[in-house]
Write a structure and sequence with these properties.
Layout: H1 10-19, H2 24-37, E1 43-46, H3 48-56, E2 68-72, H4 99-106, E3 110-115, E4 127-128, E5 132-133, E6 135-136, E7 139-143, H5 149-156, E8 162-167, H6 173-179, E9 182-185, E10 205-210, H7 213-223, E11 253-256, H8 267-284, E12 287-288, H9 299-314, H10 327-339, H11 342-363, E13 368-372, E14 387-389, E15 392-394, H12 396-409, E16 413-421, E17 424-432, H13 437-450
Parallel strand pairs: 2-3, 11-12, 11-13
Antiparallel strand pairs: 1-3, 4-5, 6-7, 8-10, 9-10, 9-16, 13-17, 14-15, 16-17
Helix pairs in contact: 2-3, 7-13, 9-11, 11-12
């Protein structure tokens, strides 16, 4: 009998199923027990009955055959809650399953339930009025990041080996960095966002929170590829997992830019990123060059673009629903309503154009940008908007200065664990050219091979 969930990566769990060392049903029961006893508050909804049915009939020859999996609260599974992590929609139910989750389930996955997220995906923190605090498995009371908070906490906390995620401004990379996971944000359009794709502001990509590089590559093999209900989705590319480690990285040029010229980064984090970046360059044969990098943070422009969609979704419920929203979301709606006009919208689009030019100019000179994922290690979980703790700026805007640029421009970026500070994980972000996702996965695999990271937090159930 399996007493605790699998603490290796997803690929190794599938291999264990195929060897007959574990069964999907036993693994699921261990997962359900661990979720029930966990203090992380990583799951907002558990569907044990549906999961047991799926596990009982799981085909372990499939890529994710029999794997218990968390689904981000903002992703859609027919019949499950469709709350957007907000009290406003606490009683709403999903009427369809997302294209990504259809593909993942068809590949044999066993969805266990929904993992907590920040409200409407709008904040990079792990606390909402609906669900309360989701804790970082490395230290209770610290943020798990956002918006894919519960997914990262569940995977790093030893509850499930993999969970879905989404990244509209850092929502895969930020929690991956805080929780010591591999967080891959692909080129915009890599994984389709349908059905009923929201087009604007074209910053959101889908993916997963993973323990290993090969887990993320397998997710791409299953979920990526064009779908007609997302007109901006990219054509299918084969062989993500099979191709790991096959690309020639030697001689490619990289720039070390821990702050991207915009964020206030803790000195110890900057030093760790420089050390890890230099080590990666040595191990992968990269050439480090000195190129100016000053990418605009674009927090205001990013927020304006997303708030327009939120206002449409709230419809006639706004402003009567104000007290059900987090203070930050309500503040943003007020700001956008007061400030947004044709002139402001035009300036925001001009800023996005300038950002594209700035990013492209850097990639005229280099193949990769190496930066921090987060300005600091995980801050106290109750903090939401910008504030100072021990004299350090923490919160939404400063975190976004490191991650939002790659969303606005659509470039692929990956967060890779590179050690700890104060016993909390540090993430190194590598940004690449459009459509060169495979090169980023290979660089992450170099780090994984030469300086492997713990697959779960020290306190994960064993």
């Amino acid at each position: 009998m399996t007493d605790a969930p699998w603490l290796g990566d997803t690929v190794s769990l599938v291999e264990a199923f195929r060897r007959g060392e574990r069964s999907p049903l036993e693994e699921l029961e261990a997962t359900l027990a661990a979720i029930a006893s966990s203090e992380l508050n990583a799951f907002s909804h558990v569907d044990a009955e549906r999961a047991r049915e799926a596990a009982a009939s799981a085909d372990v020859s499939q890529p994710f055959g029999g794997v218990p999996m968390g689904v981000k609260e903002l992703d859609s599974v027919e019949g499950w809650p469709a709350t957007e992590a907000s009290l406003v929609f606490a009683d709403r139910r999903a009427t369809f399953t997302s294209t990504m989750m259809q593909r993942i389930q068809a590949a044999g996955a066993v969805p266990v339930g929904q993992t907590t997220a920040s409200e409407f995906g709008g904040l990079n923190v792990s606390v909402t009025k609906l669900n309360g605090v989701t804790h970082n498995p490395w230290q209770q009371g610290r943020t798990a990041g956002g918006s894919s908070a519960g997914s990262s906490a569940a995977v790093a906390g030893g509850l499930v080996t993999i969970a879905s995620g989404g990244d509209g401004g850092g929502s895969i990379r930020i929690p991956a960095g805080f929780c010591g996971l591999l967080g891959m944000k692909g080129t915009a359009g890599r994984i389709p966002r349908g059905p009923r794709t929201g087009i604007a502001p074209m910053t959101v990509v889908l993916g997963c929170q993973a323990r290993s590089v090969r887990d993320a590559a397998r997710w791409y093999d299953v979920a990526a590829g064009y779908d007609s209900r997302d007109p901006y989705s990219l054509p299918r590319v084969e062989g993500w997992e099979r191709g790991l480690g096959t690309h020639d990285l030697r001689g490619r040029r990289a720039v070390l830019a821990p702050t991207l010229g915009a964020a206030v980064v803790r000195p110890e984090v900057e030093a760790r990123i420089r050390e890890a970046g230099e080590q990666l360059a040595h191990d992968a044969g990269l050439v480090l060059v000195d190129v100016p990098v000053a990418l605009p943070g674009l927090g205001f422009e990013w927020a304006i673009g997303n708030l327009a969609g939120l206002r449409q979704e709230l419809g006639d419920l706004w402003p009567a629903c104000r007290d059900e929203l987090s203070a930050e979301i309500a503040f943003g709606l007020d700001l956008a309503q007061d400030a947004l006009n044709l002139e402001v919208a035009g300036r925001a689009e001009a800023a996005r154009t300038d950002a594209n030019e700035a990013m492209a100019a850097v990639f005229d000179e280099v193949d990769f940008i190496i930066a921090a994922t987060n300005p600091d290690v995980a801050f106290p979980a109750h903090i939401a908007f910008n504030t100072r703790v021990d004299g350090k700026k923490v919160g939404l805007e400063n975190n976004g200065a490191l991650t939002i640029p790659a969303n606005v421009t659509g470039n692929p970026a990956v967060s890779v664990p590179v050690g700890t500070i104060d016993d909390l994980p540090v993430g190194m972000q590598i940004i690449g050219r459009h459509h060169e996702d495979a090169l980023l996965l290979d660089l992450a695999a170099v780090v994984e091979r030469t300086t492997p990271w713990p697959l779960v937090a020290p306190g994960a159930p064993r």
